[in-house]
Amino acid sequence: MGAPYDPADERTALARGPHRPAYHFAPPTNWLNDPNGLIQFDGTYHLFYQHNPAEPVWGDIHWGHARSEDLLHWTDMPIALEPDAAGVDADGCFSGCAVDDGGVPTLVYTGIDGDRARQCLATGDETLRQWEKPSVNPVVETSPPGVDAFDFRDPFVWREGDGWSMVVGAATEPDSRVLLYRSSTLREWEYRGAVFVDDRPDVMWECPALVALDGRGRGRDRDRDRNGNQYLLLGSLLPTRAVRYYVGSYVDERFEPRAEGVLDAGDFYAPQPFVDESERIVLVGWVEEARTEAAQRAAGWSGLMALPRELSLDEDGRLRTTPVDEVRRLRELEYDLPAVGPGDGTVLVDQPRSETVELVAEVSGTGAGTGTEPSSASISVLRSPNGLEETVVRVDPDRGTVTVDRSHSSDDPAVETHEQTAHFEPTGDPVMVRCFVDRSVVEVYADGWACLTSRVYPTRADSSGIALSTTGGASVDGGTAWELASVWDDFA
Ligand code: DQQ
């Protein structure tokens, strides 16, 4: 008999890989996709995730599980859900959520059996280690008329009034719908119609979520007065894989959008929000790979989670996305970043030289608006001393763009290199750019208005430098950099 499976051993072995993140959550080994079942239960955060425990490729989908006290340091837990060969989830335990049902942790997920998708429950003990699938499964047996039997998945449940509400993503002909259900027990559900219809043809809403922007719908007085009935609807859309958000009202079981945008324009998909015990809306999203399947197999793992983010509305009703405050605890050695004005060329930054850093820099444009020549400031990270390998984060405050240019990120010709761009509304004011670098992850926030998470795979051991440069009338008005700590023991 072999030694029992210990995720800690797997983590230690994989930590030596050059692209393994130091402070983002990655699976102990093999495959990870969507975050599932996010919940803070008795003070402890739990992250479940779509997981193939046998191979670093999608398939045989289980629910992996980890817990954390601070959203940064995670402890692996036993696998929570596995397909049951004789059950309605024989072909996979697809995405879903977690709720606290009067002290009973309860997972609501999609069971896949052949080409049928049905909504199911699992209940946990107080430690969230042991999970049972009650015989009442499936709790939603068939998709409503007109809804494809397979494209009916990803339940998201919340407390509403004296019962429960649930949205489920669905592909319909000719549109895509977010379906609404109500229940008082979690075990019997009544279909209430589409809470939202996306009338574009051939779109499938995966992982929909509807959340009150004032926390649990109660909110702090300040927010309630200011924001009134403000809800956030999220969806991950096939086939474009865009992650869209809509801010609007939710009245009489219908969602009416008034603003919309892209949540993260990078390698980011299937995020899930949850409300924590301090009523923050926290979002975790899957960061996909941009390397070949062969490279993922060679690495022994695939996929990771973006930093947990807090979502909120500003005084003008615009959605803000910022890393949770806890992330500041990772900061170690601090360095000043120099100011770089127009015409200063490329300025090499001596320190830090590290593949795990946070950079905060203020970038000014010309203030002349969008019709002008491009004026941008660039922050090069993961840069080799000769500059042949580098990932360039380019910010144009006049046009309101943040771009990650990956054309020189890697000497490996097999990785994806296309540029990724996020947009924000230019105000004429300087933009505070916050950039997290974690070996194969570059996660950028522009003042909280635009987000972009990209995967890059430098090949050289010395691709760990930083350089700053500008074009047109833009400038870097200085900033700060920190080396960031690893969140894993025994990190190589
Ligand atoms: N991933 C899950 C589905 C979901 C998709 C399967 C989104 O439940 O629709 O692994 O990435």
Shape: globular
Q: How many domains, as an integer?
A: 2
The top level CATH class name of the largest domain: Mainly Beta
* Strand residue percentage: over 45%
Summarize the structure.
With 492 residues, the chain is mainly β. The chain is 4% helix and 51% strand. The radius of gyration is 22 Å and the shape is globular.
Please outline the helices and strands:
Elements lengths: L6 H8 L15 E12 L2 E9 L9 E7 L5 E8 L11 E9 L2 E10 L2 E9 L6 E2 L14 E14 L2 E10 L3 E8 L6 E9 L5 E9 L8 H7 L3 E8 L3 E10 L2 E9 L5 E8 L5 E7 L5 H7 L1 E2 L1 E2 L3 E5 L5 E5 L7 E7 L9 E3 L6 E9 L12 E7 L7 E6 L4 E5 L14 E4 L7 E8 L2 E6 L3 E6 L9 E6 L4 E10 L8
Parallel strand pairs: 1-19
Antiparallel strand pairs: 1-2, 2-3, 3-4, 5-6, 6-7, 7-8, 9-10, 10-11, 11-12, 13-14, 14-15, 15-16, 17-18, 18-20, 18-21, 21-22, 23-34, 24-33, 25-30, 25-34, 26-27, 26-33, 27-28, 28-29, 30-31, 31-32
The structure holds 2,5-dideoxy-2,5-imino-D-mannitol.
Any overview of this molecule?
The protein is mostly beta strands. The protein folds into two domains: 8-325, Glycosyl hydrolase domain, family 43 (Tachylectin-2, Chain A, 5 Propeller); 331-484, Sandwich (Jelly Rolls). Helices cover 4% and strands 51% of the residues. It has three helices and 34 strands. It has helices spanning 7-14, 221-227, 293-299, and strands spanning 30-41, 44-52, 62-68, 74-81, 93-101, 104-113, 116-124, 131-132, 147-160, 163-172, 176-183, 190-198, 204-212, 231-238, 242-251, 254-262, 268-275, 281-287, 301-302, 304-305, 309-313, 319-323, 331-337, 347-349, 356-364, 377-383, 391-396, 401-405, 420-423, 431-438, 441-446, 450-455, 465-470, 475-484. The strands form seven sheets. The protein has a six-stranded antiparallel beta sheet, with no helix packed on it. It has a six-stranded antiparallel beta sheet with strand order 24-33-26-27-28-29, with no helix packed on it. The protein is globular, with a radius of gyration of 22 Å. The two termini are 29 Å apart. Residues 216-227 have low confidence and may be disordered. The structure holds 2,5-dideoxy-2,5-imino-D-mannitol. 2,5-dideoxy-2,5-imino-D-mannitol is lined by residues 33-34, 50, 61, 94-95, 110, 153-154, 206-207, 236, 269-270.
